Amino acid sequence: MKKTLVLLTCILALALGATAQNQINFSSLPLVSTPASMPSDYFGLNWTNIFYVDPVEWAGSGVGYKLGPVLNQDVAFVGESGCRLPPGGGACYGTISAYSSGGVNNPISFQPLSATVAGGFGPTSITVIAYNNGNYVGSASYAIGAGMQTLSFPPTWGNITELTFQTAAGGDLVLYDLEVYWAVG
Known about the structure:
mainly beta; seven-stranded antiparallel sheet; five-stranded antiparallel sheet; globular
């Protein structure tokens, strides 16, 4: 009886862990030919100052926007023409945060694992900052090329409630996908 209970507990724990991982891509968004704000609650997340577009249809997309494995699939991005003003550019920020249906006073958390990214118009640098319930957890800086690459986030960040992407002056960060673990229980 004890062995059966232990086995069932292990199976349940594995099943919960398997369903807690999400690879977020932008294939289920409607194809748009001009940048649009990410819809709130996409994959249960809040998206602030992050846009999406079909890079094949958008005349303003740079080479880093058009690297996806599937044509006519939207990409998300941080940065836009306003980030390149005044001359010399300014930094842009995009934030992804997770809140349960209880709102900001009842946040859920996630652990960011990795992101597939590219520099929208060429090489740039970004800083990714992690917060948990408004408290700073850590940051990491990355050099991004015009080619697609995978960033791994520090596992020491653990579960967080907010992830902010800051682009260097005038740079665009293109997101092809984001992999996270949802906090369970």
